[in-house]
Amino acid sequence: MQFIGRSYKGSSKNGRMDGEGEYTFPTNTKYVGEMKDGMFHGEGMLLFPNGIKCESTWENGLSKEGLFTFADGLQYQETNWDYCDGNDRRFHSERCNGIRPAGESQMTDLHPPRPIPEGCYDCADGFYDPVTRVVTSYSSGFLRNAGEAQIARSSHQGTAKE
């Protein structure tokens, strides 16, 4: 099945996703697993382009129980979460591999850190250039103009009032 900006490979019933399949969102996030009546249902996994994954048991499109794993291998714990709290600010890689010697501190969880273009800021999904007000991907592709989400939100709110 082909949808605008998304795709589905797998079994279907009455024109709806049903059984085993792979659904790809426009953001390249993928769901791989069981479907029922067009919804995630049963065992399945969301795979995000940045390496994060969410393995879960789904009921009618809602995650009921599962495991969330960050790209660096850190697994989220709902209780007794002690990562990056007020008592321990180390990166996950520092917890696994130890802290680097003085003078070789880590500024990010990546070692060596990603080179940031001069005058730009790392904004988690790419680099923000305050001069051009553009966010580019880490591979230098255009992602968005700064403030697009804010503008869309403001104009939507303005429309609702009118």
Automatic annotation (TrEMBL):
Q: Taxonomic lineage per UniProt?
A: Eukaryota, Metazoa, Chordata, Craniata, Vertebrata
Name the record gives this protein: MORN repeat-containing protein 5
Q: What is its main location?
A: other
Can you tell which superkingdom this protein's organism belongs to? Eukaryota
Q: Give the location in the cell.
A: Cell projection, Cilium, Flagellum
Pfam families found in the cross-reference section: MORN (PF02493)
A GO cellular component annotation in the UniProt record: motile cilium
Keyword annotations for this protein?
Answer: Cell projection, Cilium, Flagellum, Repeat
Give the span(s) annotated as Disordered.
1-21
Check the record and name the PANTHER family matching this protein: MORN REPEAT-CONTAINING PROTEIN 5 (PTHR46437)
